[in-house]
C-alpha cells in the first residue's frame, strides 16, 4: 500500500466501482437497510451493489451474500453497518476477500472509551493493505459516481465543492440545507473517529481529484498539528481550502476536549495555523458555502482593481463598506472610462465607483456598463448590485449579465447581488448555475469576492521557504544546558545576550567585571556613557534591589557605581549569588518590542512579536506564528502589530496643547 499515493489509496472508498453493504438489514427502520436503499436510489449501478447478511437471501430485490467472501466480483468499497462487537470479525473477512477500502458506520469505539478495539480495526486494515474511514460515521456521499453509502436522506446536488465533516449530524443536515440553496457538492464525507483516514488524507485526496475545485471542512480539532500544517501547505497551493473551525469559546474547547478525549489546541493556534498556510477560516456555514461557490466558479483576478455597478445608491454604499471590511480594493474610475460609462446612465447617474446607473437602469444599461468594464484592462473584478425595480426584470437582467460575462474574451471574476423577492431568488439561481455567483445581500457578494482575492493573494506570495540563519547552536545549547543543570528556569542578562548573538541577533556586548577597576577598564574600551548592571542568577528584578546604574560618564563614576551596586546587593539581597557586574554601552532609547514563545499542545512552539514595555499586558499588541516560520510569515507577523507602524516611522496627527 505504501507505494500507492493517498489519491490511489482513497479512490476505492470515494470513487468505488462496486460496493458491499455488510449488515444490510431486512428491516426498513435499521441503518443497514437505509444505506442499501440509498445506494440503489442514488443511481449507483444495481449490479455492482452487494448486500451482505447471513440471515437473508434477498433484500430490496438484490441477491444477498452470507459473507463478503462469497461475493463473486471484486469489491472496491465495503460499508460496515453491524454492531461494534462484530466489526473486527467482518473486517477480517474483508482482508480475506481483498476488498480495496472500508467505511465503518458503526459506533461504539473510541468515543465510548474503547480505544484498544478501535486500534484493532486499524491493525486489521493494515494487514489487508486497505484504508479505513471511520468508525462512527454517517457514511459517504459521492455525487461523481452516485454513491450514497450513508444514512443521509439523499445525495446532495452534484457540484465541485468537497465537504469534509467531523460532525456526522451536521453532514446529514447540510445535505438538505445545500440542496435548498442549490449548492452542489462533489462529496460529503464524515470522518468520525478518524482511526485511520483523517481530514489531512482526505484533503490530499481532493487536492488531486479532478471533480473537486474547492475543499471545505467542518473541524473541531486535529490531533497532529505538524501534519495538519504540512498538508494544508501542500493542498492550498493546488486548491482553495475553507475551514469552519468550531470552538472559539473556552467553554466549547472544553466540550470538544471531553468529546474527543484528546487535547485541544488553542483557538488562537488554529487561527494562526490557517492564516499561515493560506487556508481561509470562515465564521459560519453561510460563509462556508458562499465563499466556496465563488472560489469554485470564478477565475482568479489578475489585479486589485474592483468596480461596483449598481442601480441603488444604498446598495452601493453597503457594498463599499463591505469592500473595506473584506479587503476588496475599489479603483478610482479614470476619466476616459468614466466617459464611456456615461452612455449607460441618465445625466444624474454617477461614474464614480460605485458606478450608479440609477433606478432607471435597464438590462441593456447593465449589460453595456458591464461589457465596458470587462473590456478595460485596468478593471480586474466586478460587483453588480441590483435592487428590484419595476423598470427591469431580474430574470432578463440575469440573462444579460450571463451573456456579457460569457462573451467577454478576458475572464474576470464577476459577483452579483440580487436584492428583492422571489424573482430575484430565481435570477440568482440562473446566475450562479451559469458561473456568476449571486447572493441575496451586497455584503455576501463582496465577502465572497474577498475570499477569492484572499486566495489569489496567497498564491502570489507563497514559496517564501524557511529562513536559513547562520546559527551557533552548540554555543546556545551549552548556555541553556548549564542553566538547566543548575536548576534555573531563566537565563541571566549576559547569558540571554549570548544566546541572542549565537542566533545572529545584534545585542550590545555584555562583558562582566569582577572589580571596580576592571569595570572602569571595560568602560574605557566600550566608550562612555555606560550602564552597570549586577549579574546574578538569583536576581530577576534588578532595579528593585539597586542593581542597575545608568548614564555613567567617566572611570570615577563607574568605580563608584560598582561599589554602590555591591553594597546594595549585600543589603537588599544578601542570599543572592553575584557573578560580577555587567558593563555595557548606554543605547539611545528606541521602541520596546517583545519576542516570546508559547508551546501549544497541538501545534508546538508559537512565536510571538509585539509591543513591549510596561504596557504590554494592557495593549495586547501582539501577533503569533507557528514555528518554523518562513521569511514571509515573520514579515507578516511584524506587520500585523501596531508597533510596526511606529517602527516604520508613522507620524500620526499631533496633539495640540
Ligand atoms: N455480517 C453481515 N450482517 C450481519 C452479520 C454479519 N456477520 N451479523 C449480523 N448481521 C446483520 C443482522 O442480522 C442485521 O440484519 P437483520 O436486521 O436483517 O437481521 C444487520 O446485520 C444489522 O445488525 P443488528 O444487530 O440488527 O444491528 P443494528 O442495525 O441494530 O445496529 C449499527 C447496527 C451499526 C447501526 C449500530 O450498532 C450503530 O453503531 N449505530 C450507530 C450508527 C451511527 O450513529 N454512526 C455515527 C453517525 S455520526
Please mark out the parts with pLDDT under 50 across 5 or more consecutive residues, or reply none.
Answer: 256-263
Q: What is the strand content?
A: 15-25%
Q: Helical segment tally?
A: 23
Annotation, overall tally of beta strands: 27
Class from secondary-structure proportions: alpha/beta
Tell me the major beta sheet. Answer: 7 strands, mixed
Order of the strands making up the biggest sheet: 9-8-11-10-12-13-14
Radius of gyration using CA atoms only: 32 Å
Q: Give the termini separation.
A: 76 Å
Bound compounds, each kind once, are:
coenzyme A
Mean pLDDT: 92
DSSP helix fraction? 40-55%
Tell the overall outline. Answer: flat
Jot down its keywords:
single chain; 657 residues; alpha/beta; seven-stranded mixed β-sheet; 19% strand; binds coenzyme A
Structure write-up:
The chain is α/β, with parallel strands linked by helices and 657 residues long. Helix content is 41%, strand content 19%. It has 23 helices and 27 strands. The chain has a 7-stranded mixed beta sheet with strand order 9-8-11-10-12-13-14, with helices on both faces. Helix 15 links the parallel strand 19 (414-419) and strand 20 (438-439). It starts with 5 loop residues before the first helix and ends in a 10-residue tail after the last helix. Mean pLDDT is 92; it is low at 256-263. Bound molecules: coenzyme A (COA).
Q: Mind sketching the topology for me?
A:
Layout: H1 6-14, E1 19-22, H2 31-42, E2 49-52, E3 58-59, E4 62-63, E5 77-80, H3 87-97, E6 101-104, H4 115-128, E7 131-133, E8 139-142, E9 147-150, E10 158-165, H5 168-180, E11 185-190, H6 199-208, E12 214-219, H7 225-238, E13 241-245, H8 250-260, H9 267-277, E14 280-281, H10 285-297, E15 305-310, H11 313-325, E16 329-330, H12 335-341, E17 355-356, H13 363-375, E18 381-387, H14 394-407, E19 414-419, H15 422-433, E20 438-439, H16 442-461, H17 473-485, H18 493-502, E21 512-513, H19 516-526, E22 530-535, E23 548-552, H20 555-572, E24 580-585, E25 593-600, E26 604-611, H21 616-619, E27 622-626, H22 631-639, H23 642-647
Parallel strand pairs: 1-2, 1-5, 5-6, 6-7, 10-11, 10-12, 12-13, 13-14, 15-16, 15-17, 15-18, 18-19, 19-20
Antiparallel strand pairs: 3-4, 8-9, 8-11, 21-24, 22-23, 22-24, 25-26, 26-27
Helix pairs in contact: 1-6, 3-4, 6-7, 7-9, 10-16, 11-16, 13-14, 14-15, 17-18, 19-20
Coenzyme A (COA) is lined by residues 22-23, 25-27, 30-32, 52-56, 81-83, 86, 90, 105-108, 136-138, 168.
Amino acid at each position: 500500500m505504501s507505494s500507492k499515493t493517498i489519491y490511489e489509496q482513497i479512490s476505492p472508498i470515494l470513487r468505488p466501482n462496486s460496493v458491499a453493504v455488510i449488515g444490510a438489514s431486512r428491516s426498513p427502520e435499521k441503518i443497514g437497510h437505509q444505506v442499501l436503499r440509498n445506494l440503489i436510489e442514488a443511481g449507483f449501478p444495481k449490479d455492482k451493489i452487494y448486500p451482505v447478511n447471513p440471515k437473508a437471501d434477498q433484500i430490496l430485490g438484490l441477491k444477498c451474500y452470507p459473507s463478503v467472501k462469497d461475493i463473486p466480483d471484486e469489491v472496491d468499497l465495503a460499508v460496515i453497518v453491524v454492531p461494534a462487537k462484530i466489526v473486527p470479525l467482518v473486517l477480517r473477512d474483508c482482508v480475506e476477500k481483498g476488498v480495496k477500502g472500508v467505511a465503518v458506520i458503526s459506533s461504539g469505539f473510541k468515543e465510548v472509551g474503547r480505544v484498544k478495539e478501535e486500534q484493532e480495526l486499524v491493525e486489521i486494515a493494515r494487514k489487508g493493505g486497505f484504508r479505513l474511514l471511520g468508525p462512527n460515521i454517517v457514511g459517504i456521499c459521492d455525487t461523481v459516481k452516485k454513491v450514497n453509502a450513508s444514512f443521509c436522506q439523499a445525495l446532495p446536488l452534484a457540484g465541485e465543492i468537497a465537504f469534509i465533516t467531523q460532525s456526522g449530524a451536521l453532514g446529514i443536515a447540510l445535505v438538505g440545507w445545500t440542496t435548498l440553496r442549490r449548492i452542489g457538492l462533489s462529496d460529503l464525507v464524515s470522518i468520525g473517529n478518524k482511526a485511520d483516514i483523517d481530514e489531512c488524507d482526505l484533503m490530499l485526496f481532493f487536492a488531486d481529484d479532478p471533480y473537486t475545485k474547492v475543499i471545505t471542512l467542518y473541524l473541531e480539532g486535529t490531533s497532529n498539528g505538524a501534519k495538519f500544517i504540512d498538508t494544508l501547505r501542500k493542498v492550498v497551493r493546488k486548491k482553495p481550502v475553507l475551514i469552519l473551525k468550531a470552538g472559539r469559546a473556552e467553554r466549547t474547547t472544553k466540550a470538544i476536549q471531553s468529546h474527543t478525549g484528546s487535547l485541544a489546541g488553542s483557538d488562537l493556534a488554529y487561527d494562526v495555523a490557517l492564516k499561515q498556510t493560506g487556508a481561509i477560516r470562515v465564521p459560519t456555514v453561510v460563509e462556508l458555502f458562499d465563499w466556496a461557490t465563488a472560489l469554485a466558479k470564478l477565475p482568479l483576478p489578475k489585479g486589485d482593481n474592483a468596480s461596483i455597478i449598481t442601480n441603488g445608491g444604498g446598495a452601493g454604499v453597503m457594498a463599499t463598506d463591505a469592500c473595506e471590511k473584506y479587503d476588496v480594493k475599489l479603483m478610482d474610475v479614470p476619466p476616459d472610462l468614466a466617459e464611456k460609462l456615461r452612455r449607460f446612465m441618465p445625466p444624474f447617474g454617477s461614474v464614480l465607483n460605485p458606478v450608479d446607473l440609477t433606478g432607471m437602469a435597464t438590462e441593456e444599461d447593465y449589460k453595456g456598463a458591464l461589457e465596458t468594464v470587462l473590456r478595460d484592462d485596468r478593471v480586474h473584478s466586478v460587483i453588480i448590485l441590483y435592487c428590484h425595480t419595476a423598470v427591469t426584470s431580474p430574470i432578463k437582467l440575469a440573462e444579460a449579465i450571463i451573456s456579457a460575462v460569457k462573451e467577454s474574451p478576458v475572464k474576470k471574476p464577476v459577483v452579483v447581488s440580487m436584492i428583492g423577492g422571489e424573482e430575484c431568488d430565481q435570477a440568482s439561481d440562473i446566475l450562479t448555475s451559469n458561473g456568476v455567483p449571486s447572493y441575496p445581500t451586497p455584503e455576501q457578494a463582496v465577502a465572497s469576492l474577498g475570499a477569492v482575492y484572499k486566495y489569489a493573494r496567497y498564491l502570489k506570495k507563497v514559496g517564501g521557504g524557511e529562513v536559513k540563519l547562520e546559527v551557533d547552536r552548540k554555543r546556545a545549547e551549552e548556555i541553556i544546558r548549564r542553566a538547566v543543570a543548575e536548576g534555573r528556569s531563566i537565563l541571566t542578562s549576559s547569558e540571554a545576550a549570548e544566546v541572542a548573538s549565537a542566533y545572529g541577533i545584534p545585542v550590545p556586548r555584555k562583558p562582566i567585571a569582577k572589580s571596580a577597576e576592571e569595570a572602569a577598564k571595560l568602560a574605557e574600551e566600550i566608550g562612555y556613557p555606560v550602564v552597570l548592571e549586577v549579574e546574578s542568577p538569583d536576581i530577576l528584578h534588578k532595579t528593585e534591589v539597586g542593581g542597575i546604574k545608568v548614564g555613567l560618564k567617566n572611570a570615577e563614576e563607574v568605580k563608584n557605581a560598582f561599589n554602590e551596586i555591591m553594597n546594595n546587593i549585600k543589603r537588599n539581597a544578601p542570599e543572592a549569588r553575584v557573578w560580577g557586574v555587567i558593563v555595557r554601552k548606554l543605547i539611545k532609547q528606541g521602541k520596546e518590542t517583545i519576542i516570546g514563545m508559547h508551546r501549544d499542545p497541538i501545534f508546538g512552539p508559537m512565536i510571538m512579536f509585539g509591543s513591549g514595555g510596561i504596557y504590554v499586558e494592557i495593549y495586547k499588541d501582539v501577533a503569533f506564528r507557528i514555528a518554523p516560520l518562513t521569511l514571509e510569515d515573520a514579515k507578516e507577523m511584524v506587520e500585523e502589530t501596531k508597533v510596526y507602524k511606529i517602527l516604520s516611522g508613522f507620524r500620526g496627527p499631533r496633539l495640540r496643547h
